[in-house]
Amino acid sequence: IKHPLQNTWTLWYFELDKSKSWEESQREITSFDTAEDFWSMYHHIKTASELKNGCDYSMFKQGIRPMWEDKANKQGGRWLINLDKKQRSTELDHFWLEILLCMIGEGFNEYSDDICGAVVNVRPRTDKIAVWTGDASVQASVMEIGRKLKERLKITPKITIGYQVHKDTMVQKGSTTKNTYVI
Ligand code: M7G
Question: Could you give the CA distance from residue 96 to residue 181 in angstroms, rounded to a whole number?
């Protein structure tokens, strides 16, 4: 028998279709709830670094859409990791896989329930990887998830990452959203 996961997860792919809205351009690819089915999905698709600029992958718990508007994300935010061009070949795929494994393995320990999903944005300048959590106001949970994330990715303590509330990102005018937490 296969090894069951605690949650069922859904993989989404985003590629902007100019005749559609942003939301309609999010496509649900597949869902899985065993370790074996995760790996067959993973080996079947392109790696993040092979995607075209402008495309995203998202992996969220089943029933949560990879967007601010979903009720599970509305009060939440994201730990954001920016990657420069050099890191696309060295870290992007490795970070993304490590985050997927941490999520399906419920590796955020007692705070795993606060995890909604994760997103990788492949962009011409800065690629981004983010872990989305459900409630930005629960500091203990947000901080512990950020700490665990840095530990799993072996990000040196000298580098800080920021947590941004979706409600701030949603209304941002300039290029960057303020960090509500940093670690
Ligand atoms: P992005 O793809 O997250 O980052 O957002 P980028 O600026 O590096 O490409 C780009 C744009 O996509 C935003 O300004 C929004 O117009 C749209 N967008 C992104 N997200 C995450 C959402 C979302 O959750 N909901 C909606 N409605 N639009 C979004």
Answer: 22
